[in-house]
Amino acid sequence: MFGFSAAAVSSLRQMQNGGKQFRRGLDAWDRQMLERDRRLTGFARGQTDKAEAPEGFELNNPWKVESRFY
C-alpha cells in the first residue's frame, strides 16, 4: 500500500509539472522565473521559443509592493 500511494503521488506531481520531475530547493530567482514562465505560457513549467511576448504581457506586471523596514 505504501509503495502504491508513493507511486501515485509521484505520478500526479509529474503530471502537474507537465511531465517533468518535481523541482526541489527553489530559491527566489527560480520562483520568479517560474512565475514569468506561467505568465508567458499559462503553465508554470512551460517554456516558449517565441522572441516576442504575447499580447497583453506588458500589462501583466508581476512586481509586488513590499513594505520598507527602517
TrEMBL record:
Gene Ontology cellular component list: mitochondrial inner membrane
InterPro entries in the cross-refs: NADH_Ub_cplx-1_asu_su-1 (IPR017384)
Membrane topology label: Single-pass membrane protein
Main location: mitochondrion
Localization (cell): Mitochondrion inner membrane
Domain of life: Eukaryota
Cross-referenced Pfam families: MWFE (PF15879)
Coiled coil: none
Keywords, ordered alphabetically: Electron transport, Membrane, Mitochondrion, Mitochondrion inner membrane, Respiratory chain, Transmembrane, Transmembrane helix, Transport
Family: Belongs to the complex I NDUFA1 subunit family.
Task of the protein: Accessory subunit of the mitochondrial membrane respiratory chain NADH dehydrogenase (Complex I), that is believed not to be involved in catalysis. Complex I functions in the transfer of electrons from NADH to the respiratory chain. The immediate electron acceptor for the enzyme is believed to be ubiquinone.
Name the UniProt record assigns to this protein: NADH dehydrogenase [ubiquinone] 1 alpha subcomplex subunit 1
Annotated source species: Aaosphaeria arxii CBS 175.79
Lineage of producing organism: Eukaryota, Fungi, Dikarya, Ascomycota, Pezizomycotina
